[in-house]
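Reply to dn_fold:

You asked what the input looked like. This is it:
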Amino acid sequence: MTVFIRVQRVGRGQIVSAPLSLEGVPATAGELICACVDACVHEQRVRVEAGYRPLTPEELAGCAKIGKIAFNFDYNGKKADLDSAKDTAMQAYRDGLFRVFLNGVELTDEDTPVHLSEGDELTFIRLVMLAGRLW
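and this is what came back:
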């Protein structure tokens, strides 16, 4: 199943939707977050295995359009641990570090049932804590 994902930080202007292929159909918000983590970890592992490759002119033009040239190259060379990534994502969701919206409706709890269909739009908003001096 393909959904469109939008990742944004509060205060950022431009939002771009990108397709994300999910395995199966998640029934709850927690399963949806884990399915997104699965897809992202899979993409990271493919990038690590592929190694460095030069950007095509189309990719370079797309990067220039958004104002950041990135090679999608993992300089660390380590593959992400899927279980650890899922645990981290679920803990961050429970701690309120990001919010998830499905077609503009917030998923408030990890047990919230979701009715996902092809082409739905997911929005992840990372909440940035305002930090000051700790003393």
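The longest strand covers residues 2-9.
Hope that clears it up.
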